[in-house]
Every structure is written in structure tokens, then in C-alpha cells.
Amino acid sequence: MNIRNVLLILTIVLLPFEGTILSLPLVFALSLLFYTLFPDESTLLVVFAAGFVLDILRIIPSGSTLIAMAAAFLIIFFWRRLFETRDLRVALGIIFVCSFVYAKFFDYSANVLFYCSIFVFSAAVVSYLTKRKSLW
Known about the structure:
By secondary structure, the protein is mainly alpha-helical. Helices cover 78% and strands 0% of the residues.
């Protein structure tokens, strides 16, 4: 299995858990990581569909997660274009800040320790993938 399929399956598996049990924006952070690694149209389609399903499961206005995802994607896109960087550590920092702001707006748990754990998890995934030379 390639990395894209693993991230896709993980996104689909996390949807019901985040919508019902978890109080962490894992799907949002994973979607940002997914877009950072594979910035194309099929990724956007999958991520926006996951955001729409997440809105339905969390019983919040439909499209609110899509707006937050689109804003975060634009930040990542313009950051990459402005500084012409492919450094994933910068992208992980943006994912950390965006997921924390998203959690503040959409009534997730506001503990900074949780978001540090998301950041550490994302950093571990990216470092594993870069060691295997699976990225770029």
C-alpha cells in the first residue's frame, strides 16, 4: 500500500470516532497533512467529503469545517508559493496552529497538551516517511 491509500483509510476510520467519541480535531489535522503531502484535486475532493461527513456527525452547520479546511489549505498553499519551500517542518507548524485555532472555534477540547500530541504524531509520521524516502 502506498502512503496516499494509508492516509485515505485512516481518514475514513477516524471519521466516526471523532464525530462521536474523541474531542480532538484529528480528521482536520490529518486532512491538512494529507493535503500537504499530496496537493492535488483528488485529495481536495476526499478531504472536503470527509469534512462534510464530519459536520453531519458532529451536528454542526454543514460546510463550516469545509470553510476552515479551505482557509488552512490556502495558508499552506500561499506559504509554499511565497517562500518556495518544501520543508515539512514548517507545514507541521502550520498544521499545529491551524488545528488549535479550528478547535477553539468549533468547541473541541482546549488543552494545549492535546495539540502538542497531534503535532508530535504528525512529526513522527513525516519523519518516518522521509526516512523511507516515500515523499518527494
